[in-house]
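Friendly challenge for the regulars: who can give me the C-alpha coordinates for this chain first? No prize, just bragging rights.
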Amino acid sequence: MGKVGIGLNLEAVRTSHKSFEWGVQFAAELGYEYIEPMVHWGRELLSEARYFHSVSMLDDPLRIRQACERHGLKLSALSSHSQLSKPEIAVEYLKQAARYAAECGAPVINTHEGHKQPWTTEEEDFVLIRYSIMEASRVCEPRGIKLGLEMHQTYSLIPAKYDRILNLVDSSVVGANFDTGNAYLGGEDPIAWIERIKQRLLHVHAKDISIEQSDAERGKVMGTAVGCACGDGVIDWERVIAILRSIPQDIVLSVECGTLDQAARSIDHLRQLV
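First reply, four minutes later:
Bragging rights claimed.
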Protein backbone atom coordinates (compact mmCIF):
# COMPACT_ATOMS: atom_id res chain seq x y z
CA MET A 1 0.00 0.00 0.00
CA GLY A 2 1.06 3.57 -0.57
CA LYS A 3 2.47 5.96 1.98
CA VAL A 4 0.45 8.89 3.35
CA GLY A 5 2.56 12.02 3.87
CA ILE A 6 1.71 15.35 5.50
CA GLY A 7 2.51 18.61 3.76
CA LEU A 8 1.67 22.29 4.04
CA ASN A 9 0.18 24.35 1.24
CA LEU A 10 1.91 27.69 1.70
CA GLU A 11 -1.43 29.49 1.52
CA ALA A 12 -1.19 29.17 5.31
CA VAL A 13 1.32 32.04 5.36
CA ARG A 14 -0.50 34.30 2.88
CA THR A 15 -2.24 36.49 5.44
CA SER A 16 0.98 36.83 7.46
CA HIS A 17 2.65 38.76 4.61
CA LYS A 18 5.76 36.59 4.65
CA SER A 19 8.01 35.38 1.85
CA PHE A 20 8.30 31.96 0.26
CA GLU A 21 11.57 31.32 2.09
CA TRP A 22 10.00 32.26 5.42
CA GLY A 23 7.13 29.87 4.72
CA VAL A 24 9.51 27.01 3.95
CA GLN A 25 11.32 27.50 7.24
CA PHE A 26 8.03 27.78 9.12
CA ALA A 27 6.75 24.49 7.66
CA ALA A 28 9.98 22.73 8.56
CA GLU A 29 9.94 24.02 12.13
CA LEU A 30 6.41 22.64 12.59
CA GLY A 31 7.56 19.23 11.39
CA TYR A 32 5.90 19.05 7.97
CA GLU A 33 7.58 16.69 5.52
CA TYR A 34 6.30 18.35 2.33
CA ILE A 35 5.31 21.77 1.07
CA GLU A 36 3.14 22.91 -1.84
CA PRO A 37 4.31 26.33 -3.08
CA MET A 38 2.22 28.58 -5.28
CA VAL A 39 3.73 29.77 -8.55
CA HIS A 40 2.68 32.58 -10.85
CA TRP A 41 3.48 33.93 -14.28
CA GLY A 42 5.29 37.25 -14.66
CA ARG A 43 6.07 39.58 -11.78
CA GLU A 44 3.95 40.51 -8.77
CA LEU A 45 4.81 43.46 -6.53
CA LEU A 46 4.22 41.91 -3.11
CA SER A 47 6.05 38.67 -3.84
CA GLU A 48 8.99 40.61 -5.31
CA ALA A 49 9.11 42.61 -2.07
CA ARG A 50 8.99 39.33 -0.09
CA TYR A 51 5.63 40.13 1.50
CA PHE A 52 3.86 37.29 -0.30
CA HIS A 53 4.61 33.57 -0.55
CA SER A 54 4.09 33.00 -4.28
CA VAL A 55 7.11 32.41 -6.55
CA SER A 56 7.38 33.74 -10.08
CA MET A 57 8.06 31.15 -12.77
CA LEU A 58 10.48 33.70 -14.21
CA ASP A 59 12.68 33.07 -11.16
CA ASP A 60 15.27 30.29 -11.20
CA PRO A 61 13.45 27.07 -10.19
CA LEU A 62 16.50 26.21 -8.11
CA ARG A 63 15.24 28.87 -5.70
CA ILE A 64 12.52 26.42 -4.67
CA ARG A 65 14.68 23.30 -4.79
CA GLN A 66 17.47 24.81 -2.69
CA ALA A 67 15.09 26.27 -0.09
CA CYS A 68 13.61 22.81 0.41
CA GLU A 69 17.02 21.20 0.63
CA ARG A 70 18.17 23.71 3.27
CA HIS A 71 15.27 22.73 5.53
CA GLY A 72 14.98 19.02 4.73
CA LEU A 73 11.62 19.30 2.97
CA LYS A 74 10.19 17.72 -0.18
CA LEU A 75 7.73 19.10 -2.69
CA SER A 76 4.32 17.45 -2.98
CA ALA A 77 3.13 19.65 -5.86
CA LEU A 78 3.06 23.14 -7.28
CA SER A 79 -0.13 25.14 -6.84
CA SER A 80 -0.32 26.35 -10.44
CA HIS A 81 -4.02 27.09 -10.72
CA SER A 82 -5.06 28.53 -14.04
CA GLN A 83 -8.31 28.52 -15.97
CA LEU A 84 -8.63 25.37 -18.09
CA SER A 85 -11.73 26.79 -19.74
CA LYS A 86 -9.63 29.76 -20.89
CA PRO A 87 -6.88 28.25 -23.08
CA GLU A 88 -5.37 31.67 -23.67
CA ILE A 89 -4.44 31.61 -19.96
CA ALA A 90 -4.10 27.94 -19.11
CA VAL A 91 -2.03 26.52 -21.93
CA GLU A 92 1.16 28.54 -21.63
CA TYR A 93 0.78 28.84 -17.86
CA LEU A 94 0.62 25.07 -17.35
CA LYS A 95 3.28 24.27 -19.92
CA GLN A 96 5.64 26.59 -18.08
CA ALA A 97 4.56 25.11 -14.73
CA ALA A 98 5.40 21.60 -15.98
CA ARG A 99 8.86 22.67 -17.08
CA TYR A 100 9.36 24.53 -13.81
CA ALA A 101 8.20 21.54 -11.75
CA ALA A 102 10.60 19.23 -13.54
CA GLU A 103 13.54 21.42 -12.61
CA CYS A 104 12.57 22.32 -9.04
CA GLY A 105 11.56 18.74 -8.21
CA ALA A 106 7.77 18.87 -7.82
CA PRO A 107 6.00 15.71 -9.03
CA VAL A 108 2.55 17.28 -9.60
CA ILE A 109 1.13 20.55 -10.90
CA ASN A 110 -2.40 21.39 -9.73
CA THR A 111 -5.09 23.33 -11.55
CA HIS A 112 -8.88 23.54 -12.08
CA GLU A 113 -11.36 24.38 -14.83
CA GLY A 114 -11.95 28.03 -13.98
CA HIS A 115 -14.96 30.32 -13.91
CA LYS A 116 -17.81 29.76 -16.34
CA GLN A 117 -18.02 32.34 -19.11
CA PRO A 118 -21.56 33.69 -19.72
CA TRP A 119 -21.33 33.36 -23.51
CA THR A 120 -20.23 29.71 -23.86
CA THR A 121 -22.33 26.55 -23.79
CA GLU A 122 -21.42 23.59 -21.60
CA GLU A 123 -20.27 21.58 -24.62
CA GLU A 124 -18.07 24.44 -25.76
CA ASP A 125 -16.55 24.64 -22.30
CA PHE A 126 -15.63 20.96 -22.35
CA VAL A 127 -13.92 21.41 -25.72
CA LEU A 128 -11.91 24.31 -24.30
CA ILE A 129 -11.04 22.37 -21.13
CA ARG A 130 -9.96 19.35 -23.19
CA TYR A 131 -7.72 21.51 -25.37
CA SER A 132 -5.95 22.96 -22.32
CA ILE A 133 -5.48 19.57 -20.66
CA MET A 134 -4.17 18.05 -23.89
CA GLU A 135 -1.61 20.80 -24.45
CA ALA A 136 -0.44 20.66 -20.82
CA SER A 137 -0.27 16.86 -20.71
CA ARG A 138 2.01 16.77 -23.75
CA VAL A 139 4.57 18.81 -21.84
CA CYS A 140 4.03 16.89 -18.58
CA GLU A 141 4.35 13.39 -20.05
CA PRO A 142 8.00 13.39 -21.20
CA ARG A 143 9.04 15.02 -17.93
CA GLY A 144 7.15 12.60 -15.69
CA ILE A 145 5.05 15.39 -14.19
CA LYS A 146 1.48 14.64 -13.11
CA LEU A 147 -1.40 17.03 -13.81
CA GLY A 148 -3.78 17.25 -10.85
CA LEU A 149 -7.30 18.45 -11.61
CA GLU A 150 -9.15 19.91 -8.64
CA MET A 151 -12.89 20.24 -8.02
CA HIS A 152 -13.39 23.97 -7.61
CA GLN A 153 -15.87 25.50 -10.04
CA THR A 154 -19.04 25.09 -12.10
CA TYR A 155 -18.61 21.57 -13.48
CA SER A 156 -16.00 19.90 -11.30
CA LEU A 157 -18.08 20.10 -8.11
CA ILE A 158 -20.57 17.69 -9.70
CA PRO A 159 -19.06 14.17 -9.45
CA ALA A 160 -20.29 12.94 -12.85
CA LYS A 161 -19.00 16.05 -14.61
CA TYR A 162 -15.72 15.87 -12.69
CA ASP A 163 -15.36 12.30 -13.98
CA ARG A 164 -15.92 13.62 -17.48
CA ILE A 165 -13.15 16.22 -17.02
CA LEU A 166 -10.76 13.55 -15.71
CA ASN A 167 -11.43 11.46 -18.82
CA LEU A 168 -11.32 14.14 -21.49
CA VAL A 169 -7.70 13.26 -22.31
CA ASP A 170 -6.34 9.73 -22.35
CA SER A 171 -3.06 10.30 -20.51
CA SER A 172 -1.39 8.50 -17.63
CA VAL A 173 -0.32 11.83 -16.12
CA VAL A 174 -3.84 13.24 -15.68
CA GLY A 175 -5.52 12.59 -12.34
CA ALA A 176 -7.26 14.04 -9.31
CA ASN A 177 -6.13 16.66 -6.86
CA PHE A 178 -8.95 15.96 -4.41
CA ASP A 179 -9.98 18.90 -2.22
CA THR A 180 -11.94 17.65 0.78
CA GLY A 181 -13.31 21.06 1.72
CA ASN A 182 -14.42 22.04 -1.76
CA ALA A 183 -16.17 18.68 -2.20
CA TYR A 184 -17.99 19.17 1.11
CA LEU A 185 -19.03 22.78 0.46
CA GLY A 186 -20.31 21.75 -2.95
CA GLY A 187 -22.88 19.63 -1.14
CA GLU A 188 -21.27 16.23 -1.65
CA ASP A 189 -20.07 13.59 0.80
CA PRO A 190 -16.27 13.87 0.52
CA ILE A 191 -15.74 10.36 1.90
CA ALA A 192 -17.96 8.74 -0.73
CA TRP A 193 -16.44 10.89 -3.47
CA ILE A 194 -12.82 10.17 -2.62
CA GLU A 195 -13.68 6.47 -2.43
CA ARG A 196 -15.25 6.74 -5.88
CA ILE A 197 -12.14 8.21 -7.53
CA LYS A 198 -9.37 6.83 -5.34
CA GLN A 199 -7.62 5.05 -8.21
CA ARG A 200 -7.20 8.42 -9.97
CA LEU A 201 -5.77 10.24 -6.95
CA LEU A 202 -2.50 12.11 -7.34
CA HIS A 203 -2.61 14.54 -4.42
CA VAL A 204 -5.04 15.73 -1.72
CA HIS A 205 -5.78 19.22 -0.46
CA ALA A 206 -6.46 18.58 3.21
CA LYS A 207 -9.02 21.31 3.76
CA ASP A 208 -11.34 21.20 6.76
CA ILE A 209 -14.49 23.30 7.01
CA SER A 210 -15.71 24.87 10.23
CA ILE A 211 -19.26 24.34 11.45
CA GLU A 212 -19.90 28.07 10.99
CA GLN A 213 -18.72 28.07 7.36
CA SER A 214 -20.64 24.88 6.68
CA ASP A 215 -23.88 26.38 8.00
CA ALA A 216 -23.40 29.57 6.00
CA GLU A 217 -22.07 28.27 2.68
CA ARG A 218 -22.63 24.57 2.04
CA GLY A 219 -24.42 24.09 -1.25
CA LYS A 220 -24.12 27.80 -2.06
CA VAL A 221 -20.47 28.26 -3.12
CA MET A 222 -18.01 26.74 -5.60
CA GLY A 223 -15.28 25.90 -3.12
CA THR A 224 -13.30 28.16 -0.83
CA ALA A 225 -9.80 29.58 -0.71
CA VAL A 226 -8.73 27.94 2.55
CA GLY A 227 -10.30 26.03 5.42
CA CYS A 228 -9.92 25.85 9.17
CA ALA A 229 -7.40 23.69 11.03
CA CYS A 230 -7.68 19.99 10.25
CA GLY A 231 -9.56 18.44 13.15
CA ASP A 232 -11.48 21.61 14.00
CA GLY A 233 -14.15 21.10 11.34
CA VAL A 234 -16.48 18.63 9.69
CA ILE A 235 -14.08 16.37 7.74
CA ASP A 236 -13.54 12.84 9.07
CA TRP A 237 -9.77 12.61 8.66
CA GLU A 238 -9.53 9.09 10.04
CA ARG A 239 -11.77 7.83 7.23
CA VAL A 240 -9.94 9.88 4.60
CA ILE A 241 -6.61 8.44 5.68
CA ALA A 242 -8.02 4.89 5.73
CA ILE A 243 -9.00 5.28 2.07
CA LEU A 244 -5.58 6.68 1.16
CA ARG A 245 -3.91 3.73 2.86
CA SER A 246 -5.96 1.31 0.76
CA ILE A 247 -4.52 2.43 -2.58
CA PRO A 248 -1.12 1.58 -4.06
CA GLN A 249 0.09 5.11 -4.83
CA ASP A 250 1.76 7.44 -2.33
CA ILE A 251 -0.41 10.46 -1.50
CA VAL A 252 0.39 13.68 0.36
CA LEU A 253 -2.23 15.44 2.47
CA SER A 254 -1.38 19.06 1.66
CA VAL A 255 -2.94 21.09 4.48
CA GLU A 256 -4.82 24.08 3.08
CA CYS A 257 -5.66 26.42 5.94
CA GLY A 258 -5.58 30.17 6.47
CA THR A 259 -3.33 31.00 9.42
CA LEU A 260 -0.07 30.00 11.08
CA ASP A 261 -1.90 28.76 14.16
CA GLN A 262 -4.18 26.58 12.02
CA ALA A 263 -1.12 25.10 10.31
CA ALA A 264 0.31 24.13 13.70
CA ARG A 265 -2.96 22.61 14.93
CA SER A 266 -3.44 20.73 11.67
CA ILE A 267 -0.16 18.85 11.83
CA ASP A 268 -0.72 18.04 15.50
CA HIS A 269 -4.06 16.47 14.60
CA LEU A 270 -2.98 14.63 11.46
CA ARG A 271 0.17 13.20 13.08
CA GLN A 272 -2.05 11.29 15.50
CA LEU A 273 -3.78 9.58 12.58
CA VAL A 274 -1.03 9.02 10.01
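Residues 140 and 204 are 19 Å apart (CA to CA). The mean pLDDT is 97. Your move, everyone else.
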